[in-house]
Design a protein that fits this description.
The protein has a domain of 116 residues. Strands 5, 6, 7, 10, 11, 12, 15, 16 and 17 form a nine-stranded antiparallel β-sheet that branches. Strands 4-8-9-13-14-18-19-22 form an eight-stranded antiparallel β-barrel. The chain is mainly beta and 484 residues long. It has seven helices and 22 strands.
């Protein structure tokens, strides 16, 4: 404007110079106005961040008209492209012209890993595919893009116990075989012959400890609770229940690209198992007592009909077969039912398998703590007993079949109770679709030891149940997740 004022002063000097100066004024004004047409693009200002990169920097005004529409559009696209959403909108660009530069296919930016694998803004999806274009429009007519913060999860799995005994016989001695079993309860005895025939033979089959020859007597082979040996199986948790199956459901909060926290509720069920509890081995004894009889006589020497007298001392013969298995035992446990509530967190690492879009595989570690409610558990002792007679006459118990002894009923092993539990997991998660993910995980699960139920022994003494073993198991879980 100062140039135009100076021209006006000169014009007042005389009419003769008016035409010449008017021509100069018109020329200067045209040049200035043509320069002002680029003010909207911030051309010609040293403080403009785009100025040093513009192809117009060194052009004179006469050359501007040589640019066609195609060059103007290319120049506009370059000026209206930003590196990030936080960058200010370039002057002279309308909102619908703004684009964001992204890396081309095969040259994607390296992220720090975590969940989701590619942290893009999405329409309700987390970790979804990025559009395969060289720029992403920042101004769209669709719904506002966002990262989800919650997702629902559902899982199924199984676990196998690796440590801990279901019964500690030192803490529940009433369940020991040696406190329950007495071989004398299964003796077999019968008589042959009659007094009228002059002889009665009584044969008895029994089992007891192996005795020295000089100790063998009818009394010694009938001692209660005596046998050679008893085996007692260590019943671990994995022996007394079939593999527990569980289902869980819950919600997961996405803290950031690498961390999530979750809360789950679950139910587990395992059918009770019947397993060998032990066996008893003893020496089989066969005792044969022969007693002769004679008819009773009157004083006159006449036979008294139907009356007989022993005819001298009896003759006793005892034979034996040592080290024979005479009984086997099996514990039958009731079903296990467990309800779990847990809270925990997961940390995601860099993807180990990357692909275009959302289909990535990301490893993670997790930990949780919680409370479990477990039902009461009963145990029944089933016994198979060998026939002493059949076994002795066969010469061994190997080829003989025993008989089932009726059970005395179930015994309460554990009462229902609440138990603390904790879990450590490792796994990998596959982003199947923008909204669905699948994960496979395993680890270690720790459950506090259960309290044995109170009981009363055979002598009437009451005992309070003590604490059992910690149950350590290895879970294997398939989990599905759905973004909200």
């Amino acid at each position: 404007m100062m140039g135009m004022t100076r021209v006006s002063h000169v014009l007042m000097l005389g009419d003769d110079m008016r035409l010449g100066f008017l021509t100069v004024s018109t020329t200067v004004s045209a040049v200035l106005l043509s320069g002002c047409s680029f003010i909207g693009g911030q051309l010609g200002f040293d403080n403009n961040p785009y100025n040093n990169n513009t192809p117009y920097m060194n052009q004179n005004p006469a050359q501007y008209a040589q640019y066609d529409v195609r060059n103007q559009q290319a120049h506009l696209g370059n000026r209206c492209q930003v590196a990030s959403r936080a960058q200010a909108m370039p002057r002279g660009c309308r909102p619908e012209q703004i684009t964001q530069a992204v890396a081309p296919q095969g040259r994607q930016m390296a992220y720090g890993g975590g969940f989701p694998q590619q942290p893009q803004y999405t329409d309700g999806a987390y970790g979804s595919a990025v559009e395969k274009t060289s720029a992403v429009a920042l101004n769209t007519s669709g719904p506002k893009k966002r990262k989800p913060k919650l997702r629902a999860s559902f899982s199924i799995g199984a676990e196998r116990s690796t440590n801990g005994n279901a019964i500690d016989f030192d803490k529940r001695p009433d369940l020991r075989i040696n406190s329950l079993y007495n071989p004398q309860d299964f003796n077999e005895s019968f008589d042959t012959g009659t007094e009228a025939s002059g002889n009665i033979t009584t044969t008895t089959y029994t089992a007891n400890a192996l005795l020295d020859a000089n100790q063998i007597s009818p009394a010694n082979i009938r001692t209660d609770h005596h046998y050679e040996s008893a085996t007692e199986s260590q019943l671990e948790f994995d022996d007394v229940w079939l593999t527990p199956l569980n289902v869980k459901g819950g919600v997961e909060y996405i803290v950031d690209d690498k961390t999530t926290v979750f809360a789950n509720g679950g139910y587990s069920y395992a059918a009770g198992n019947a397993g060998t509890a032990g066996s008893v081995s003893a020496t089989l004894y066969k005792e044969v007592i022969e007693q002769p009889y004679t008819p009773a006589l009157t004083a006159a020497g006449d036979v008294i009909p139907g009356q007989f007298l022993t005819d001298g001392a009896s003759n006793t013969v005892i034979s034996y077969i040592p080290n024979q298995q005479i009984a086997t035992f099996e514990y039958d446990f009731s079903d296990l039912k467990r309800f779990d509530v847990e809270v925990g967190a997961r940390h995601y690492f860099k993807p180990v398998v990357k692909s275009e879009g959302y289909k990535t595989v990301t490893p993670f570690v997790g930990a949780s703590v919680g409370i479990s409610h477990v039902n009461a558990v009963d145990v029944t002792l089933n016994q198979t007993q060998e026939s002493y007679q059949n076994a002795f006459e066969a010469g061994s118990t190997v080829d003989t079949e025993g008989f089932t002894v009726p059970s005395s009923g179930a015994v309460r092993l554990y009462d229902a109770q609440l138990l603390a539990q904790a879990q450590l997991n490792v796994g990998a998660e596959w982003q199947v679709t923008p909204t669905w993910a699948l994960a496979l995980e395993s680890g270690l699960r720790f459950q506090d030891g259960r309290d044995y139920a109170d009981y009363t022994d055979s002598s009437g003494n009451a005992f309070e149940g003590s604490n059992g073993d910690i149950n350590v198991s290895i879970p294997l879980t398939l989990r599905g997740s759905l973004n909200f």
